[in-house]
Amino acid sequence: MVITYTIAIDKNDDGDFSDVNEDITHDVLALHWRLGMNQAYDSMATPIAAEITVRNVNRTYSPEVTPLLPGKRLRIQSNDGNTTRTHFMGFIHKVEPTPGTHGARTALIHAYGAEAWLPENQVRLPILTTVRADEVINQILQRVKLRYAVLDDYLIVGETGKNMLGRKLFGDYWTASLETGKSTFAYMGDIWGEGVPADAAIGQLAQSERGRFFVNRSGDAVFYNRHHTLKDVTVKATFADDMAGMVYEYGAAVVNNIQVAMMPRTLGTPNTILWSLAEPQLLNPGIVKRFIARYSDANDNPVGALLINNINYNANTTPAGFGTDMQTFLSVSVVIAGASSATIEVRNMSDSPIYLRSLAVFGTPLIGGDRLILEERDVSSETYYGYRQWRLELPFVTVLEDAVNIAQYELRRRSNPIGMVRQLQTDTVHHPTQVLSLTLFDRITLQETQTGHQHDYFIIGEAHLVDKGGTQHQVTWLLEPADDDRFFIIGQSLLDGTRYMMY
Fold first, then answer.
1. At what angle do helices 133-143 and 198-209 cross, to 10 degrees?
2. Which pLDDT tens digit goes with each residue over 357-409?
């Protein structure tokens, strides 16, 4: 089987990779890319990343000589004579040309997925009640500013030659596939203060659901609920004593004490002050200002808000209030009534400076109590294998029964020692089709004689290295044991007394 690779950059931002000089394969010396989780049982994947080593004899990849700007979309594909597969879709982050005219004269192109911009986006949401993780993740993805995949034919301020007026620069181009979550959360967004990074918010949601959030080979955002790997029983490939390498261990994953940290909420008194201005502020004529007001109680402890009732304010020509009342010349409005803070817009409509002397936001507070730590133990496992603790921070879980179910689920799948393959290595010499086709959350079967191990696994991470002119393609898969043999699924499992009900 002859495998060819194609590496292309959408240099003109038109959404395809077919224009002149966009295929850079002839300059590529080596490829390295990775996708997926960092370790087994993670809920949130690390950003996908690629490194492409290219020849730079003619300074084609020296951006100060030949422009190659960050943000351009980059794609890695393979073809085995029958099928073309996309392995990576991301954006150039930076370029590192090797200096020296008599040196290696190469360059290293670094590319990341769109999720690398999530930490740059601080998100706040309006109060959400009785919602699932997928619903909230969707709202977060709709709010973040990500680099638009196609800029050609868009009007960009300061540039000419663009013709599509009224189109937005940042948009919801990011394709997302979000499974329906199994848990319903009573309140959402009230603990995020002035805002939290979007990746942290999504991570908290995935963790609370015990689901998975990752970016696939096509660059799409994917969310799986906690039942996904229990219901997928289709084995895509079997490896029996023919791996290039394998990292195996026995007993390292034992956990016999699960602690779940949850945060109950209570509703406060309606029409309570949620935020107030600390001191008078000068507003010049015609000025319009927006600021974020974080809700807090009388002791300055952060609180949420289930409802905003009203706002009160006072304005005067002097900060002490001894001048002329200017309240009618001041416009104050709550632009965004968030769950944890409000965005307030203040406008001075007069022809003279005025002082905003007081401003207060009133509403119904949503008060987070002290954290409640639920503990589930397997005393027998502690006795035989030693004390092994694991704590889960689940801030959106407010119902004790949900916390119990989560703790028991994790305890039942990890309280007894098992043999476990952490990583599997192979290459296109031995398994060409599998290396090219198997990807995140595909199920495989492993059989290894020396260890006596046989079990099914899900691929939760993949790292590829292609070099030697494309003749060598090695892959390392990060694995996680399939647990469907421990839980009862209606219509799929036998009720044989060896399984637990999955909540």
1. 170
2. 999 999 999 988 778 899 999 999 999 999 999 998 888 888 888 888 888 88
Residue type, 262: M
Q: Say whether domain 227-252+418-503 belongs to CATH 2.30.29.
A: no
CB 462 within 8 A of CB 475: yes
Tokens of 502: 């999955």
- Taking phi first (over 0 means left), then psi (-120 to 50 degrees means alpha), and beta for anything else, what does residue 263 get? beta
Q: What residues does each domain of the chain span?
A: 4-112, 115-225, 227-252+418-503, 260-264+370-413, 266-368
Alpha-carbon distances of 147 from 81, 107, 170, rounded to whole Å = 34, 24, 6
On whether the CB atoms of residues 441 and 228 are closer than 8 A, the answer is yes
Report CA dihedral (148, 149, 152, 154) to the nearest 10 degrees.
-30
What class does CATH assign to 4-112? mainly beta
Q: Tell me the one-letter amino acid at 238.
A: T
Q: Which residue has the tokens 């040196």?
A: 103
- Three-state SS at 458: strand
CATH architecture of 115-225: 3-Layer(bab) Sandwich (3.55)
CA atoms within 13 A on the CB side of 91: 20
pLDDT digits (tens, 9 = 90+) for 1-38: 789 999 999 988 888 888 888 999 999 999 999 999 99
Residue 206: closest CA among 140, 112, 259, 120: 140
CB 133 within 8 A of CB 213: no
Q: Are domains 4-112 and 115-225 of this chain identical in fold?
A: no
Question: Do 380 and 342 touch, CB atoms closer than 8 A?
Answer: no
Amino acid identity of 207? Q
Model pTM greater than 0.70? yes
Burial class (CB in 10 A: 0-12, 13-18, 19+), 188: buried
